[in-house]
Specification:
This protein has helices spanning 24-40, 58-71, 86-98, 109-115, 184-194, 210-220, 249-255, 260-268, 282-288, 303-316, 319-332, 341-353, 360-367, 388-403, 408-422, 426-438, 446-453, 455-466; strands at 11-14, 43-48, 80-81, 102-105, 142-145, 152-157, 161-166, 174-176, 199-203, 226-230, 233-234, 299-300. With 469 residues, the chain is mainly alpha-helical. The strands form five sheets. A three-stranded parallel β-sheet has the order 1-2-3. A three-stranded antiparallel β-sheet has the order 4-5-8. Strands 6-7 form a two-stranded antiparallel ribbon. The protein binds glutamic acid (GLU).
Length: 469
């Protein structure tokens, strides 16, 4: 086991296999590695485990890098592509053969069948384990680790505690296949060692691999990292989350307009806690993150929780920062961002709108009236509020809006006194004004809309709404 390392020597890593999108579990693993490194002033490294050439794709690697970047998890140093270390993996395997800790296994299919554990023999030991010399020079062979026949392999996991495996139950597992490809349990050790990884934080589905990796560390005389296995994630129904089927994945959250910082907050709570704190900033998470806060029990997805956190993060955001996010969201969907004159209107809208929405998508929908094409298209259910009587009221209101001092309390007062003079209820005026300005029957308060759009735009929209068809 590793001697304690100083905070600044801490190196974590995220080591995804590029076989699909960045799923929720992967994003959470990356986040915990990132939080831990950032909380200690250490390093967070990224390694794409593309050794399985048949299943790895460049598109998946790209999608993972893109997902991490969107989530704001910056990594230190170059991205390591595992396949590029192939020569080094081979060298280390040769070194293990040299030292007698691994051996070439030329076993044929029949011999392999005979190797299956039976009776007293409780694990797979190849007949080549103790055979001196090589097989036929042209015969295919794999390389196996010589696992000790007795004793225990111990893992002291930071979350799951002390675990031990009886060596006699562990196979002489393959480290290099007969086609020359190295196996995961071997290369992960070589790469983690070479990258100086001090803490391996990953899903508990890898717990069963850990003794094999410890055996490789021991065979090489290398110091093990601290192992930190984090709990499973269940879906909303409490079933084990399957990467493909029920996992909404990071891309879905992004499409739904959940801000990245809300996703970070939500993912951090999947298996980690700091007292009863549910809503926190990333800065707080970095300050608070300790391995002791990790839990053993499975975490569960909760979409309502995510939406509620997203609403809180949006409401708490600085307007300028929120506008940047909204503009980015709009641009990703092929619309222009709010720039130039529209920027000022959007900045006036945000303090009001941000209290009402739970996603950038809703913010986008509710702010769309700002740059809606003129004349404003009226939704079918809103058209009834723009009948002849309503248009006549608007015609009367127009000159007053042209004259008035354009300030919120003054506009408020004008609308009320106008209703008094014309002897109509407030709604009788507010609804047609709202429909004329936004095309919708329901939206913000009327004075808010007037203030956001400004006099010129308001007058233009109302004139178009009352113009004969
Ligand atoms: N490449 C492995 C995976 O995606 C991760 C291995 C590890 O973290 O050790 O599951």
């Amino acid at each position: 086991m590793r001697a304690a390392v100083s905070a600044a020597e801490i190196v974590t890593r995220f080591a995804p296999s590029p076989t699909g999108m960045l799923h929720t579990g992967g994003a959470r693993t990356a986040l915990f590695n990132w939080l831990f490194a950032r909380s200690c002033g250490g390093q967070f490294r990224l390694r794409i485990e593309d050794t399985d050439r048949a299943r790895s794709t460049a598109e998946a690697a790209e999608a993972i890098l893109d997902g991490l970047t969107w989530l704001g998890l910056d990594w230190d140093g170059e991205t390591v592509f595992q396949h590029a270390n192939r020569k080094r993996h081979r060298e280390v395997a040769e070194q293990l053969i040299e030292s007698g800790a691994a051996y070439k296994c030329f076993a044929t299919a029949e011999e392999l069948a005979a190797m299956k554990p039976t009776g007293d023999v409780r694990s797979t030991r190849s007949p080549w384990r103790d055979r001196a010399g090589d097989g036929h020079p042209d015969a295919p062979y794999c390389i196996r680790l010589k696992v000790p026949l007795s004793g225990f392999t111990v893992v002291e996991d930071a979350v799951f505690g002390h675990m031990q495996w009886q060596n006699e139950l562990l196979d002489d597992f393959i480290i290099i296949r007969s086609d020359g490809d190295p196996t995961y349990n071997f290369v992960v050790v070589v790469d983690d060692h070479d990258m100086g990884v001090s803490h391996v934080i990953r899903g508990d589905d890898h717990l069963a691999n850990t003794p094999k990796q410890c055996l490789v560390y021991a065979a090489l005389g290398w110091v093990e990292p601290v192992f930190v296995h984090i709990p499973l994630i269940l879906d909303e129904e409490g079933r084990k989350l399957s990467k493909r089927a029920d996992d909404p994945g990071l891309e879905q959250y992004r499409q739904d307009g959940i801000p990245a910082r809300a996703v970070r907050n939500y993912l951090a709570r999947l298996g980690w806690s700091h007292g009863d704190d549910d809503f926190f900033t990333t800065g707080q998470a970095i300050e608070w993150f300790r391995l002791e806060g990790l839990r053993k029990s499975p975490a569960r997805l909760d979409r309502r929780k995510l939406d509620s956190l997203a609403g809180q993060h949006i409401a708490a955001a600085e307007d300028a920062e929120l506008l940047t996010e909204l503009n980015q969201f709009r641009c990703e969907r092929g619309s222009d961002g709010f720039e130039g004159d529209l920027r000022a209107q959007a900045m006036r809208a945000l303090p009001v709108l941000k209290q009402r929405v739970k996603s950038l998508r809703e913010l986008d929908e509710q702010s769309a009236f700002i740059d809606a094409p003129r004349p404003i298209a009226v939704l079918p259910d809103a058209a009834k509020f723009l009948g002849q009587d309503a248009k006549e009221l608007l015609l009367l209101l127009l000159p007053e809006l042209t004259e008035v001092d354009w300030r919120e309390p003054v506009l408020d007062e004008l609308m009320r006194s106008f209703c008094g003079r014309e002897n109509v209820g407030f709604g009788k005026l507010a609804r047609p004004v709202r429909v004329a300005l936004t095309g919708r029957a329901a939206s913000l308060g009327i004075t808010d809309i007037l203030m956001i759009l400004g006099r010129e735009e308001v007058l233009g929209r109302i004139r178009e709404a009352v113009a004969p068809a």
